[in-house]
Amino acid sequence: MASTCYASQQEDQVVLLDSAPRPAADAADPFIVASDRRVILTYPIAESDFERFGPFDPDDDPFCAVLFADTVFHRLGPPGDADLPIHPLAAQGLTGYALHEVVNSSLCAEIAAVPAGSPAIDPEAPARRHFVLTFEASTFECVASDYTVIGVFGAGEIASREAFALVR
Q1: CA proximity to 145, closest of 130, 160, 162
Q2: Which of 46, 95, 133, 146 could form a disulfide with 140 if both were Cys (CB 3.0 to 4.6 A apart)?
Q3: pTM higher than 0.90, yes or no?
């Protein structure tokens, strides 16, 4: 990740969010379905959240689907859990296998600085928030107006099917 995305890291404040299930360790990779302004991320949930977001059958492999609305930026890639300390937000409290919001985000400020009239930036768009979700082998980041857990499903195929249906 380019360091210019986090030019003023000292202002970035990482806040742990607990309204979405935690990602499972040693599980399938997350999956993204995206359109112009909607991104849906599906991922296997941690066994510690089965009771909270269940119930599930013993043979289920629960997956969560999270919608990020009015998305203007998203990426999925390194670092993963083992390399998380190299992430520019690690010093601000970014942790493994969790959903975070970056308050006073320098990335949001950088996006807001794009000149008005740019086709990618709508000045009438809702406020932008920076979210980071960490996994075993990757990190998902996006700038969107909000996020919504659209469901927790018994299998990844069901979550992916729901994601495709909702992103249209």
Answers
A1: 130
A2: 133
A3: no
The answer to whether residue 132 sits within a structural domain is yes
**Domain assignment present for 101:** yes
Could you tell me if residue 78 is inside a domain? yes
Can you tell me the distance from the alpha carbon of 51 to that of 147, in angstroms, rounded to the nearest whole number? 22
Q: Could you give phi then psi for residue 126, rounded to 5 degrees?
A: -60, 165
Residue whose C-alpha is closest to residue 151's, from 27, 40, 48: 40
- The parts of the chain modelled with pLDDT lower than 50 are 1-4, 7-8
In the chain, % helix, strand, coil (3-state, to 5) comes to 25, 30, 45
| Residue at 4 is within a domain | no
Q: How far apart, in whole angstroms, are the C-alpha atoms of residue 147 and residue 31?
A: 16
Domain that holds residue 151: 11-167
H or E element in which residue 110 lies? helix 106-112
